[in-house]
Structures
1.
Amino acid sequence: MSESRVEIALRMLDPELQVPSYAHEGDAGADLCAREDVTLAPGERVLVATGVSIALPLGYVGLIHPRSGLATKHGLTVVNAPGTVDAGYRGELKVTLLNTDVRTPIVLKRGDRIAQLVIQKVERATFIQVEELDETVRGAGGFGSTGGFETASTQS
Ligand SMILES: O=c1ccn([C@H]2C[C@H](O)[C@@H](COP(=O)(O)OP(=O)(O)OP(=O)(O)O)O2)c(=O)[nH]1
Ligand SMILES: [Mg+2]
């Protein structure tokens, strides 16, 4: 099966950095690099520039996701994951990184691949205000209504 690709104009605001790219065929995320060295203390969050700006076509969104390896090995995540890049945004892509580790600082160097950009088609809604919504089996049940699992804090 062939994949469909959309062409997206991209500006390198820092031409020495690696152009966002997919590591493997079929990858959904193109890695974004840090523009500067940054050290995150345990629990600290920092807005990190990537040196890239893009022009998404209308009908597309860019989603900035954490990288699972950095999350698992070091506790590095994106605070607002996934970050939303609107089609009309022409500024530099930036990533609000968070060190979730309670003990160890995370040292990032300029050029390190810190997050990944997923491009998706997106639907916009026309919101139609009504007095009542249709009935469903789930109804208003949520937030664990189907059950969860027991932990020390939930056992009485
Ligand atoms: O992780 C992110 C999230 C957002 N953006 C940029 C692109 C996006 O189009 C813009 C606004 O993002 P968002 O709508 O999430 O932020 P906001 O706090 O609602 O700001 P605004 O009032 O400008 O919409 O900021 C990033 O570069 N990285
Ligand atoms: Mg917004």
2.
Amino acid sequence: MTLLLFGSIAVRRLCQRDTFYSSLSAPGARNFFFSSIGFRSYFAKQTLPMSRVALDDMTQTGAFIRVPSSFRNFISKDQSSQFPAESGRYHLYVSYACPWASRCLAFLRLKGLDKAISYTATKSVSERTKETDEHLGWVFPDSSTEESGANPDPLNGARSIRELYELASPNYSGRFTVPVLWDKKLKTIVNNESSEIIRMLNKEFDEIAENADLDLYPPHLQSVIDEVNEWVYDAINNGVYKCGFAKIQSAYDEAVVKLFDALDKCEEILSKQRYICGNVLTEADIRLFVTLIRFDEVYTVHFKCNKRLLREYPNLFNYTKDVYQIPGISSTVNMDHIKKHYYGSHPGINPSGVVPIGSNIDYSAPHDRDRFHN
Ligand SMILES: N[C@@H](CCC(=O)N[C@@H](CS)C(=O)NCC(=O)O)C(=O)O
């Protein structure tokens, strides 16, 4: 009896750990765990060196810390450089669910680089990337009909984003994140950091970009953009993750207060001007937009960012519609992938994987931002 009691407490403790839960992706796997064989295999999993999902990147204090990206090469307009800007040479691997990848897609569209740089989107929900370990990550479908918007890897026939990292660097031990900017010629990853990829797309391809004149990081606004990016990244883009992935109350409390203070600050700024750095669209707007568009549908519910809904902020809400309606942007927002991914790929937060019904906001509805003159 005592043994049984001890056993059940131990099992419950283990179940509270996200690293454990995230390894049990298929519903059947969770039941399997409760068999004795499953119990033994749980201990075997603990020797796996890599953490499995971003949710595992925790400090001792239960606060979420994002791990830096590792491929940091630059494509340059200088044709004698290692990675010169060329039409048809580079490929972008993305997930529509991912805000960081979506900002790269937005730049691709805004700059008119669709013909010069091809792209592929993965399936929305994380899956096992290998038979031999428990890693869960981005995978490609077997055919284009498996999930609308997702396509098989046309270049390397890879099954997962992980396979691309391993092709580029066989001893790679970091995270297998999207976006990935791939060089078809050298068969390697150029860069996997979205804040740098968007800078390359903004200027380095101007010889071939259809909208070469559009500069989303113009010299006269660079210091303002950098300053806005810094607090928007910390409190909003990454802030929602800090709320959602917090494992202790104080880490959540700190992140959620910072998040809503920053949203209040945006609301105030946007009551006086059309965009976040003035009356012209800049990189800072795209970076802010990718989080706002996911806010009411996902972050409010899934990441516990529910102090206020985005649609309760008149300026922020109309601003989100305004950016969404810029030609090209709506095609980078796939709400089906977004919802399926978040609610279905974080079993530590949403073990059932059930996707909530709302809020189905129509971002193509009229907005009031024309009241500001460009
Ligand atoms: N700093 C990176 C972050 C990219 C990132 O965290 N992507 C997430 C998806 S939203 C990812 O691929 N996560 C998979 C993992 O961590 O295993 C960037 O901005 O490009």
3.
Amino acid sequence: MGMKAIHFGGGNIGRGFVAEFLHTAGYEVVFIDVMDNIINELQNTKSYQVTEVSEAGETTKTITNYRAINSKTHEQDVVEEISTADIVTCAVGPNILKFIAPVIAKGIDIRSTPKPLAVIACENAIGATDTLRGHIESHTDSERLETMGERAQYANSAIDRIVPAQAPNSGLNVRIEKFYEWVVEKGPFGNVGHPNIPAIHWVDHLEPYIERKLFTVNTSHATAAYYGRYAGKKTIAEAMHDSYIRGVVRDVLKETASLIIDKHEIEAQEQQEYVETIIARISNPYLEDSVERVGRAPVRKLGRKERFIGPAAQLAERGMKYDSLLGSVEMALRFQNVKDDAESVELATILKENAPADATVQLTGLERTHPLFSAVVKVVDQVQSEAKETGQPRI
Ligand SMILES: NC(=O)c1ccc[n+]([C@@H]2O[C@H](COP(=O)([O-])OP(=O)(O)OC[C@H]3O[C@@H](n4cnc5c(N)ncnc54)[C@H](O)[C@@H]3O)[C@@H](O)[C@H]2O)c1
Ligand SMILES: O=P(O)(O)OC[C@@H](O)[C@@H](O)[C@H](O)[C@H](O)CO
């Protein structure tokens, strides 16, 4: 029998990254989603196209050999597919992991195949597979946990490829950048060996890769998005074309680079080259990536291990400079009441209803005794005061 991958999330990165590389590696991909339109389209087509766009032109690949199941309406089918699959991946967003865990737990529990299932969450978050595993374990009978390792193996990953929101008439087709990086821990697969997926770079220690990615790509991306929206820009490329915003992004990246070089002993020259690649990538005018997509979910992005507070906290602990990152935090706090973004409404409510120190704890999870805490409270206070004066943040 051929190899089978179950992939949760038939969205942009699911179709344009994970499924592409699983397909190339020879897997049949079974997409699981809760959106009727995506499932219907996947069920009613035999192929879709992934087009890489860059100044060098366009290259198109055709993805075939997939099926799709709606987990909202056909949960038992999903459970059975998982029980005979080789790998489960997901790209649903870090806040959705808890919702997909119960069905994965049921599928794992009834497995009787000799090889354990490989589980790899492909989200922009540190330790996303660990988080998913925690939710799966909390939906597994305690007496079955001891033998879980015979049925499933869990590996964290870092994924990098910019996939903007797609044009409304593009159907399943995805336009993406050429660059990609998929790094996964190999240790958890032990003697069984890791899955054979040529696109994956297997490593012993993931932390340097995921922190470098999140604190360079996503920190700069989100900085451009929040400053860009504040300045009335529509896309990230447009924001990066603005010399002031570009300068701010560079300042922020100097701070995160100093952490990455110090903590992970990456050579300064290597990090500088990485930074230049990322600046070129996020400035790519062919991607048309909106500031709203990149700024989406500001409460998640202000979290303790996330792209701003994560590096700023570690810099503060080391007595190193972090004030440009605080500027990004300030702009993120102004991403309030944005259309179709529930967290931007939640952010506005938290800022409205709480004193600065309480709002800081609620949003960032920073400990009140942390060396970064008072600096963030000041920024929160500043944004709250503007809203009190004008009835809204300065947008
Ligand atoms: N787009 C990018 O450039 C990019 C790059 C790297 C990583 N990521 C990460 O990948 C993840 C997905 O991002 P995206 O841009 O593809 O988002 P997206 O919104 O395009 O796709 C998410 C998909 O998950 C589906 N979904 C939601 N709840 C579900 C559930 N309970 N079960 C199954 N499916 C469910 C949605 O219907 C949607 O199709 C995020 O963690 C993001 O940070 C995105
Ligand atoms: O997906 P988010 O919301 O965590 O972040 C938005 C973008 O920065 C992100 O999707 C990037 O495009 C991606 O991480 C590039 O690899």
